[in-house]
Write a structure and sequence with these properties.
CATH architecture: 3-Layer(aba) Sandwich
Number of domains: 1
Radius of gyration: 21 Å
Strand content: 15-25%
Helix content: 25-40%
CATH class: Alpha Beta
Largest sheet: 8 strands, mixed
Oligomer: single chain
Strand order of the largest sheet: 6-7-8-3-9-10-12-11
Bound molecules: adenosine-5'-triphosphate, magnesium ion
Number of strands: 12
CATH topology: Rossmann fold
Structural class: alpha/beta
CATH superfamily: P-loop containing nucleotide triphosphate hydrolases
Amino acid sequence: MSEDLIKVRGLNVTYKTSKGVFGKPTNIYAVNGVSLTIKQGEIFAVAGESGCGKSTLAKAILQLVPTASGEIFFKNQNIFKMTKPELKNYKQKAQMVFQNPYSSLNPKMTIFETLAEPLKINTDLGICDIEKTIKEKLILTGLDESCLKMYPHEFSGGQRQRIAITRALMLNPEFILADEPVSALDVSIQAQIINLIKELKEKCNLTFLLITHDLSVIKYLADRVAVMYLGEIVEYGLTEKIFKTPKHPYTKALLSSAPQITKNNSEKIILKGDLPSPANLPDGCKFHTRCPYAMEKCRQQVPFGTEISPAHTVRCFLYDS
Ligand SMILES: Nc1ncnc2c1ncn2[C@@H]1O[C@H](COP(=O)(O)OP(=O)(O)OP(=O)(O)O)[C@@H](O)[C@H]1O
Ligand SMILES: [Mg+2]
């Protein structure tokens, strides 16, 4: 059994906007009571529609946004209680590939400067060792040394994503948070980056948190998947199990939108309406306003997670024991 690499317990992230209705600040409840465990060596996916809090969750794990409450552990060590050197080590071991390869690279820096930067900031390596490390990493991501003198605008989206992934590898991480790594790319290029992620996981012993709304990417890559709705995880478990026998009505709705990928026999649910605003969360089960099975209880009470089979948990009153 693999060790736990990342544990998140009861995580809440609230953004405060400076201006709301009538100039008052508004709270955006982006992540609400999220708990999950990512095991060493796995690809753990987070799925859910736009605005459900996927990127915020990833940023919170890396302390890129302040958390309102909750705990995050890296190798059983609470990251909020780490000493400065421990936190520095954590931030080297956990790296993020950001959502958009077009805006995540500094347009004014050459690729060499971009790749050298993390080494210059975090290590004492001299220029020869920096060059050597960069060349080693370029081989891993299938890039050519000729790219080093060029600027980001000279590359296609797929190449830029390779550069962003190379940068994430510079400090020999153990954990990579990949936020929609292929969604900005042409379909023809997507498969190359998906295969690269799979290869890197094996070659570099990596663990991934893969954030995507693309179910085909999850099916191909992820060992386990968590489905998020309005900042909460509503169902999680082994990808194969969730795809074959989804339980939560929201998961069923997500999978209904991609019947060619999932081919499960559960009932098809077509979602009505938009995601409610995270500034104004519904009472009770957050999905009740769009759920075809909503009962009175769902409008008033919050369901807790029920383990319906080993490695499969769902947060819905339909499965309350
Ligand atoms: N810096 C911020 N300030 C205020 N609200 C924010 C901020 N960043 C995100 N939000 C809001 O928090 C909610 C969750 O956003 P987040 O970016 O985490 O969603 P997401 O699931 O990653 O969406 P997408 O699939 O579109 O990338 C959204 O309502 C978003 O508008
Ligand atoms: Mg996002």
